[in-house]
Write a structure and sequence with these properties.
The radius of gyration is 30 Å and the shape is globular. α7 packs across α8 and α13 packs parallel to α16. It contains 17 helices and twelve strands. The N and C termini lie far apart (about 85 Å). It is about 40% helix and about 10% strand. The strands form three sheets. Strands 1, 3, 5, 6, 7, 9 and 10 form a seven-stranded mixed sheet that branches. The relative contact order is 0.13. The protein is of the alpha+beta class.
Length: about 600
Amino acid sequence: MLWTPAWCTFAGLGALYYASWVGLPDCSRQSLARQFGKDEAPVEGRLLSLNEICCATDLPLADKDNDALADWQLDKPPGANSTGHFIFETVSSLLQHWPNTRMRNGHNIVPGTIPPGTLLYRGTWSPDLPPGPGWTATDPEHSILFCRKLVKEDACWHLTLMSMRTLKVVYFDGSSAAKAPFATMDTQDIIAWGAVQPGRSLEEMNRIEDLCKWGRQYSVDGFVRMEMDFEIMLCNFTSGVRLVSSLNLAGSVILMSNTSSRRSSRMFEAMYAGSWHNHYPGETRIRLDLSGLVSFYDTELVPSLVSARSGQERRDHRLLNVSREDVARVRARLGEVLTRPTGQSSGIDWRAMIRVVVDRYSERLEFVRYLLNSVDTNDWNSVTDYAIKTQVQLRNMLVPYILVNTTPPSINLKTKEAGSGTLNWARLTYKLCATTHTEVLDDLTSSEKVLLSAVRETTREICRVVTKMWGSGVLAGVGQFMGTVSELDVEVVQNLIKMWRKDIDDLMAWLDWSVWVKCRPACGPEEICYLTTWPVGFPMPLPYLPYEEGYVLPLPSQLTQCKASVPVGPPHIELADDWERPQPRCTRRTDPYDKSFGDHP
């Protein structure tokens, strides 16, 4: 009895398919005929899958249709002055401590909010709220470093505040609270003073007053920055926040003690609190509106910096040569996004979209590089084994985009190199891979168009390289699913491995994602993975002051920059070897601490 409905089901599907075949336009019917045989339908009794039907009718098969893939050449990398991958990575890193410590020269300004009920902390010498603008921290371990006494009999006051309404803030990315003249404050200078002024890196009070004065016209409540942890520069302590507590702590005894381990402990705990926000999603108490992103990597908004960046590493990018016209455009654009009515954007979650791309490719690309670096090129078994393993991983990334009618040519790679011509059959896979995330997006703000371009440029290059590597593997015969070569050739596969290594190294260097920067091997239970973070291990001397009980610890705004190791009261400053180019390393969580943690109060 069950056979009758089953037969009817298949007969119905067959009738539907026949109807779809008869109803096809001549050009589509001819395309199908080319696939299955001239002027004839598919073999009787064989039902096409939906994928086969769609591929056969909707996708280019004729030679004239190849023009649609003319812009998808596998031998064309991005231009030397492209910045989409910089925008992609910096946006992917927003409000995350690790990548903004590694690349401290911020290039993005983003509007955001702090929701009601958020606690903020302030360490100070007074139980009272400041009458004007001032600094707060998002974690008490950070603010307590500034809980200090001015004279012996005074104590440490630690204030806790709570936001009573949504606070409107502006975020500067990078290590934007590091008081140093090497790029950390460039974006703030332009907003506060209209030009980069490295000589004013220590003018913190002038900076916060001028930023708040500028922000008043846009009802900005504060500015978000980062050093060892995140901070909020509040413009008014009597609007939008309420004092929860003002506590007279005994911590001053610890902070002022000449016991090195106690000083180190307080500084380490501040750094440790910052590490809670090292990676995605980062500091979650601040909500950014990426539809209002303003980026100095936007070459249409800021064209004057294109030539200035030429030939530089990303960590050396500055805003020093930005033109007055570009500064005016940046400030105008920021003013526009800060006055734009709520809800005037596409509603796309750009952070989530970018994160999907990072999650999809970061570990896989890293694994491909690991496999290729594991090959013993003197052992043929090792070469073939890892070539096949690598090819499987490359195919895994492309499975959603390899169509049923994707057919590689039969060529002899000993006589013909695999290049754009021999890989034309893979161009459609490349295009589908690169455009899936962004193909139909529209109704975007100016900032969202910048984000869209960044995602497109980044995914395009990832897909170009991965498709090129996969296609080359297919032609070399290491693809287990395409059936191009029955026997592997030693020379061909060895050359393939060399080419793959270069391809993956170049791609990962171009992307330069901070998720790949980690301690290897992983740190032990009594350690954390750490990047040298301002101010620890950085050159910041003061005239020598002899230590005595009641010694007044210097505020960060009192510190100055130099390139030597000099004494600063207690103890002696030791420059970190990597303070200019921070590298991950394991550091102890208990006494004895890394000696650099004792170098700053």
